[in-house]
Specification:
- The protein is of the alpha/beta class.
- The protein has one domain (about 1-160): Restriction Endonuclease.
- Helices cover about 35% and strands about 20% of the residues.
- The chain has helices at about 1-10, 25-40, 90-100, 130-135, 140-145, 150-160, and strands at about 40-45, 55-60, 70-75, 105, 110, 115-120, 145-150.
- The strands form 2 sheets. A 5-stranded mixed β-sheet has the order 1-2-3-6-7, sandwiched between helices. A two-stranded antiparallel sheet has the order 4-5.
- The longest helix is centred in the N-terminal third of the chain and has 15 residues, at about 25-40.
- The chain starts with a helix and ends with a helix.
- InterPro entries: Restrct_endonuc_IV_Mrr.
- One of its GO terms (biological process) is DNA restriction-modification system.
């Protein structure tokens, strides 16, 4: 499915609308992967599975200092709420794993760690979800390297990069 998306992207076909995603995998593969590629990030790959350690997608970019900066994406389908018994604790655990657990970069053939984590959801962050996630992550440097993107922001970015 990812190869399909890459072919569609190279031919200039638009990627799916957020509202057309059927599940988390579809959201990640049909929307996030092509969008990240269109935004100019490199080495974008879907890595969901047993050894993902909180990183459904991994990608990189060249910094202003000509070094690679690695990012991870934790993709969620639907809304994320700050209510009791919500998936906040799962997200916090996945975020901490994403930063702590290195991954094998097939391009550089070495173990790498991410510098930033994008928590991308197809719906919206309800109530105080973002605040709760940030408060539950104890490490100050980790908090400052998490970017939250909801379905509305993804739609806006997709519209801008669809052209």
């Amino acid at each position: 499915k990812e190869i399909e998306g890459a072919v569609e992207l190279s031919l200039g076909s638009p990627f799916k609308e957020v509202s057309d995603a059927e599940n988390e995998a579809d959201f990640a593969i049909s929307i996030l992967v092509p969008l990240l590629r269109k935004m100019g990030f490199s080495n974008v790959r879907y890595s969901h599975g047993r050894k993902e350690y909180g990183k459904d997608i991994i990608f990189s970019r060249r910094t202003e200092f000509d070094e690679y900066e690695y990012w991870g994406v934790q993709a969620k389908f639907g809304d994320v709420s700050g209510e009791v018994n919500s998936e906040i604790d799962t997200l916090v655990g996945q975020a901490e794993d994403a930063f702590k657990m290195p991954f094998y970069d097939v391009y550089s053939r070495s173990r790498q760690s991410i510098s930033k984590l994008l928590i991308a959801i197809s719906g919206k962050f309800t109530e105080n979800a973002v605040e709760k996630i940030c408060e539950k992550i104890e490490s100050y440097p980790l908090k400052n390297n998490i970017v939250f993107v909801d379905g509305e922001k993804i739609r806006t970015l997709a519209e801008r990069f669809r052209r």
